[in-house]
Amino acid sequence: MVVSVTGTAPAWDAAMEAELLRRIDGKTKPVGSLGAVETIAAAVARTRRSLTPRLEACDLTIFAADHGIAREGVSAYPQAVTRQMVLNFLAGGAAANVMSRALGVGFRVVDAGIAGEPIDHPALISRRIGPGTRSFLDGPAMTVAELDAALDAGRALGADGVADAVAFGEMGIGNTSAAALVAHKLTGTPLADLVGRGTGLADAGLERKRVTLEGAAARTAPVLDPRAALAEYGGFEVAMMAGAMLGGAAAGRVVLVDGFIAAVAALAAVAIDPAARGPMIFAHRSAERGHGAVLASLAAEPILDLGLRLGEGTGALLAWPIVKASAAMLSEMSSFETAGVSGPA
Ligand SMILES: O=C(O)c1ccc[n+]([C@@H]2O[C@H](COP(=O)([O-])O)[C@@H](O)[C@H]2O)c1
Ligand SMILES: Cc1cc2nc[nH]c2cc1C
């Protein structure tokens, strides 16, 4: 049964929930023996409002933008890498390109606000809010109007297309700093628990990053609402990704959440609209320091733990086959009843 989640979708009620659990336990396996695959299948069923969900297609959208804070020496790499990596995406040579091709996932890249002149390339989707954010050291990274434009552009991108599942990735030198501050202001988690090595800072660089970000955090109230946190400290790609997660979730798509920066975008999206949490599946636990705390705030148990800390949606891509297979388990696996297999003694 393929069910449109707009308009004619059946309500997900207590009877559907009970039937879902009955079907999972009725499959030809010891009860609970498919572990997290059963949890993932249930999440997909609720999102698709179907007891026989099919996940055929997944699309990855990478949001790229630059950050004023990158000029403060908070990253192991120069700001120019954002633009250079976008050219690499467009040439098909980055990790995300290779994995997308290997897994049959659609790929697109969005300029949310890359520094410098706009890149002129037919495959690049331009939703530029500006040539990067301002440094949030002594003022907001973006205006509220810029934030709303980024959220709106993201919502539209998350809702368009026909893919059953949508994965979002990001590219932005300095964005682990932005993400750490947004998470700090949304959750109250100590900043020291959220600031990590990002692209690979050594100990001295990590200490400088922490001190710089403590200074920026002191500028505003300890806790901010999601739009204020994003405008003060976010990035154009972080805000656009949050919007895309809201758009994808509202359209009934399974939303695959990648690493640390994506999880912070998810945190902001859920703070804006708690209904966005249900369709989210958390792909992996990043090696970035703050990811565990952000996942805990979202009560999220990620699928993979591979020591990844790349971004670009690579963790989400790698989790996709597991999510797809989980849905197939629910839709296609025979039951004790139909297969004539004896249930528990
Ligand atoms: O996804 C993650 O968990 C992750 C963890 C650390 C770094 N990154 C990537 O590295 C960049 C940000 O790192 P940094 O050190 O420049 O803040 C950005 O392009 C991210 O895609 C991504
Ligand atoms: C080379 C490079 C590739 C990336 N991809 C995502 N973030 C990145 C950061 C760097 C530095």
Short précis:
With 345 residues, the chain is an alpha/beta fold. It has helices at residues 14-26, 35-48, 80-91, 95-103, 144-159, 175-187, 203-217, 226-233, 236-250, 260-272, 291-297, 314-332, 336-339; strands at residues 58-65, 106-113, 124-126, 165-171, 254-257, 280-282.
Commentary on this structure:
The chain is an alpha/beta fold and 345 residues long. It folds into 2 domains: 53 residues, Nicotinate-nucleotide-dimethylbenzimidazole phosphoribosyltransferase (CobT), small domain (5,6-Dimethylbenzimidazole Phosphoribosyltransferase, Chain: A, domain 1, Orthogonal Bundle); 265 residues, Rossmann fold. It has 13 helices and 6 strands. Helix 1 runs antiparallel to helix 2, helix 2 crosses helix 12 and helix 6 runs antiparallel to helix 8. The longest helix is centred in the C-terminal third of the chain and has 19 residues. Pathway: Nucleoside biosynthesis; alpha-ribazole biosynthesis; alpha-ribazole from 5,6-dimethylbenzimidazole: step 1/2. Belongs to the CobT family.
Helicity, as a percent range: 40-55%
The largest β sheet comes out as: 6 strands, parallel
Order of helices and strands: HHEHHEEHEHHHHEHEHHH
Number of domains: 2
What's the arrangement of strands in the largest beta sheet? 3-2-1-4-5-6
The tally of helices reads 13
The CATH topology name of the largest domain reads Rossmann fold
Strand content: 5-15%
| CATH architectural group of the largest domain | 3-Layer(aba) Sandwich
Q: What's the gyration radius in Å? A: 20 Å
What binds here, in terms of ligands, is: nicotinate mononucleotide, 5,6-dimethylbenzimidazole
Uncertain spans: none
Quick one: CATH superfamily of the largest domain? Nicotinate-nucleotide-dimethylbenzimidazole phosphoribosyltransferase (CobT), large domain
Total DSSP E strands? 6
Mean of residue pLDDT? Answer: 97
Query: What is the distance, rounded to the nearest whole angstrom, between the alpha carbons of the first and last residues?
Result: 33 Å
Morphology: globular
> Which CATH first-tier class of the largest domain would you pick?
Alpha Beta
**Structural class by sheet pairing and helices:** alpha/beta
Pathway: Nucleoside biosynthesis; alpha-ribazole biosynthesis; alpha-ribazole from 5,6-dimethylbenzimidazole: step 1/2
Keywords: Cobalamin biosynthesis, Glycosyltransferase, Transferase
EC number: 2.4.2.21
Enzyme class: transferase
